[in-house]
Write a structure and sequence with these properties.
Layout (H helix, E strand, L loop, with lengths): L3 E3 L1 H4 L10 H5 L2 H16 L13 H17 L2 E5 L6 H10 L16 E5 L4 H10 L5 E7 L5 H18 L7 E5 L5 H9 L2 E4 L13 H9 L4 H14 L9 H14 L4 E6 L5 H15 L1 E3 L5 E4 L2 E4 L10 H6 L4 E8 L26 H18 L4 E6 L4 H22 L10 H10 L6 H9 L10
The protein binds 6-O-phosphono-beta-D-fructofuranose.
């Protein structure tokens, strides 16, 4: 059961000038050949580690599975502390593959301990976490690729104090670190404290790290078959090696995004028709936003390129955003996520004579209804000349999720090549990070602090 990618509604004649023609793809072949060779070279030189993740070393998988088993036996709560790529993947995969009400299930029906992903540092949220977990029965998985992210390290300080109060010097038994193999504060702390630590390969950036211990450990702890995830990613990796543009799913989808971006489709909506895939749109928003939103190209010229990610949920957002998608500006490319077989079936009862006007619904299932609504929306968008494409999950399972994650990562890598930008850095977030540290009084940043404080707020623009 493999993922299918339906591109009909990108090439459909009903789209008229808003869509693409097959010739557009043919004329893109030269760009593809160059991108393909560049990526192959980067892969061979071990510059882009995510390409190798589907072939994750067996001994590391065994170690993850062993640790996950120990956690399941000893702990009742597993809390991820991380942000961005260190949180969105674990959350998306958990939501996709575990019961949607996982934490509410009785112990015997859950695949592992109760699971929380704490990315934001909203104090109300953090305080509320401490009302539902028991620290002495909790393991905190601190995830940060750089080992230097202020949000995550603040959380580490907070839970360390809490743990010390509850379990004393054994607090390190309640911590697991996932970080760079060599660099960063967290790696140094791990050495000093002797905390169990997993490595994120140094050539894998945060937003491409879901198929490393970043995602694999939380998945294994909550009962997800991580070998299946990797097997799905492997199948997709092989497809993304194809040297023919029409047969290479990542390269073709990337070409479509770039061609349509050049024609003003500067927004990319992801709209899953499944609550289980809702957080995939959050994960993808970071992947697309941070990777493709760039001021400079690889030659240092100012290009200000990007495709703004928009998150939506079918059918919920049919009653919220779809009006805009069908009649608003012609600036969007939509990506639907469709599920052929949901893991549950709910029947709409047929025999309620007193509800005569509802007869057309009775006897169907919610499964039929949600699929019909997706197809109807897709049709309405097509008629309104809005290009869209669909990734079809025969079923949401570890294998198809593995395929999906890898497909989108490879697509982003191709987009970066086509656009001649570095899809693997994020210089635009550095100014804000530095200003935060300066405001908190970090040594050596006094000048920056003064610069931030000089940007005065004019009271006349503050209303109350
Ligand atoms: O995993 P880290 O290093 O803590 O970084 C968290 C996130 O911060 C960023 O560096 C910037 O937002 C992301 O790219 C990254 O996923």
């Amino acid at each position: 059961m493999v993922l299918k990618i339906d591109l009909n509604n990108v090439f459909h004649p009903l789209l008229q000038d808003e869509g693409l023609k097959e010739q557009d793809i043919s004329s893109f072949k030269e760009k593809f050949n160059k991108a393909f060779l560049n990526l192959r070279e980067k892969k061979e030189k071990q510059e882009l580690g995510f390409f190798h993740l589907p072939y994750f070393p067996e001994e590391e998988i065994v170690e993850i599975e062993k640790t996950a088993q120990e956690i399941k036996e000893k702990f009742s709560y597993f809390v991820v502390l991380g942000i961005g790529g260190s949180a969105l993947g674990p959350l998306a995969v958990h939501t996709a593959l575990n019961n949607l009400r996982y934490n509410e299930l009785p112990d015997e029906l859950r695949g592992g301990p109760k699971f929380y992903v704490e990315d934001n540092i909203d104090p109300e949220r953090m305080a509320s976490l401490f009302k539902v977990i028991e620290p002495e029965k909790t393991v905190f998985n601190v995830i940060t690729k750089s080992g230097a992210t202020a949000e995550t390290l603040s959380q580490l300080l907070i839970v360390t104090e809490l743990l010390k109060k509850k379990v004393g010097q054994r607090f390190t038994d309640h911590l697991i670190f996932t970080t760079d193999p060599e660099k960063g504060n967290l790696r140094a702390l791990a050495r000093e404290l002797g905390v169990k630590t997993f490595a994120i390969p140094s050539n894998v950036g945060g937003r491409f790290s879901e198929l490393t211990p970043v995602g694999l450990l939380p998945a294994a702890v909550t009962g997800i078959k991580i070998r299946e995830l990797l097997a799905g990613a492997r199948e997709m990796a092989e497809k993304c090696e194809r040297e023919n543009l029409w047969e290479n799913p990542a390269a073709l989808a990337a070409a479509i995004h770039v061609l349509l971006l050049e024609r003003g489709k500067n927004m990319a909506v992801m709209m899953p028709y499944a609550d289980s895939l809702k957080y995939m749109a959050d994960w993808y928003a970071q992947l697309l936003g941070e990777s493709i939103g760039k001021k400079l190209n690889c030659r240092g010229e100012e290009v200000y390129v990007g495709q703004t990610p928009v998150k939506a949920l079918g059918v919920t957002d049919q009653h919220s955003q779809v009006q805009l998608y069908t009649e608003g500006p012609f600036d969007k490319l939509l990506l639907f996520l469709e599920v052929e077989n949901y893991r549950n079936t709910v029947v709409i009862p047929p025999d309620f004579p007193q509800y005569a006007e509802l007869k057309f619904l009775g006897g169907h299932t919610l499964n039929e209804l949600i699929i019909a609504e997706k197809k109807a929306t897709e049709f309405a968008l097509l008629k309104a000349r809005r290009p869209n494409y669909t990734i079809i999950f025969p079923e949401v399972n570890p294998y198809t999720v593995g395929e999906f994650l890898y497909f989108l990562e490879a697509k982003i890598a191709f987009m970066g090549e086509y656009l001649d930008i570095n899809a693997f850095d994020q210089p635009g977030v550095e100014e804000g990070k530095k200003a935060t540290y300066a405001l908190l009084g970090r040594e050596g940043l006094e000048e920056k602090r003064q610069e931030v404080l000089r940007v005065q707020k004019d009271p006349k623009y503050i209303l109350s």
